[in-house]
Amino acid sequence: MRSIACILTLAHVSLVYSNMLHGTVRGWNSWDAVGLDGNETLMRQAGKFLKSSGLFDKQYTWITNDAGWYASSASFDPMEVSIDKYGRLVPSSERFPSCNGSFAPLTAELK
Known about the structure:
By secondary structure, the protein is an alpha/beta fold. It has one domain. The chain has 4 helices and 3 strands; from the N terminus they run βαβααβα. The chain has a 3-stranded parallel beta sheet. The protein is elongated and about 40 Å long. The relative contact order is 0.20.
């Protein structure tokens, strides 16, 4: 059974590289849809829409959370960025409340 793959991209280069290896990436991209205003609810809705609309069966299998996932708001105040104890960016608890520092729970839910 195919599953929706949630990926995090910080640069366009990773998408270009993926296209070269796996063919065209089709799906939903937070930047194209809502810019810096992405959140858990929108990600969930995108996954459900891809499945319910039949697009998933037509190889629209990617959900890309492109930018802003680590900031508590779209203002990108450097003091509002979510980081873990090692200094790594983690999902904002305000925008992605069920993620607890990792996108694993949301990814598992969308499979």
